[in-house]
């Protein structure tokens, strides 16, 4: 039960079959690693880290209700591979004392189930995120858990809920950026956390400053200010223009971020543009984090030419392993996650800096308004 390994192997095999002549053996090491990991997990019956954390949270909530002699309802929302993920969650939770886990069918079912069985302390409903409609009963749940967070969830509805005890989001990102514990949000905790963080100042392109929603989230939720550098004005009109391209976000002297709309990679020009940009950045940075972002729409992005171009990009980025330039690929399916990743990349760059100490890093002068001017 590994929530995606089987699908990744299937897509990888399909890509190799269709484009074997072009790719050669570029993906063989990746395929072998995924296959060995999948076999090991199955043989040793190792749960996916998300399932392990889910089991811990649900057990804790059930014990809390038992001590209070009360009954509670919990919604677990799934968006990526919902049928497969829902089946894994139900199998993991089956047989736990005081817990009843079922697939969500209707709002009426939520309101009546708690009255039918006194032994059940926690009624869990596994909800296919794509099936959430306008009349979804957000206010009927004491606990809401985003198994794979999506922008579909209506946070304003949760804020108005008088029953809500906890809202938890489980995320899986690069190991170096991974928060060890999920964040439980109650009320306006975001503003409290933001107030405790040091303010970061980054240089950003028009892609960042013209995205008002992203800019607002960075400033209000993550205490990040963006100084604009108009990269379009800085590009020379000569044969070397491709080598003068700038990143979307400059974190510090060594680290940058490039944003790429994932579905648009089906266009050959988008793929070539990203490739040329990363090549140019390899001459001026030590690390480039590429955030592949997608919209809220449920259409699956890893199809057709998108998958083919991603495979070629991964193969080309592998050549940088021999140099001092590192490329890290991150994925985001909501604008909230994009803003969070930008902040987390800044946190990591600060922790790994060998030039500035931890306290001086946010105050470095090279990112002042004057220094960022073209």
TrEMBL record:
User: Which residues lie in coiled coils?
Assistant: none
Q: Record's Gene Ontology CC terms?
A: condensed nuclear chromosome
Query: What Gene Ontology terms for biological process does this UniProt record contain?
Result: resolution of meiotic recombination intermediates
The record's annotation in Pfam families points to:
DUF5587
What is the name attached to this protein's record? Uncharacterized protein
Task: List GO molecular-function terms, semicolon-separated.
Answer: ATP hydrolysis activity; single-stranded DNA binding
Q: Which species is the source of this protein? A: Desmophyllum pertusum
Q: Which InterPro entries match?
A: SHOC1
The superkingdom of the source organism is Eukaryota
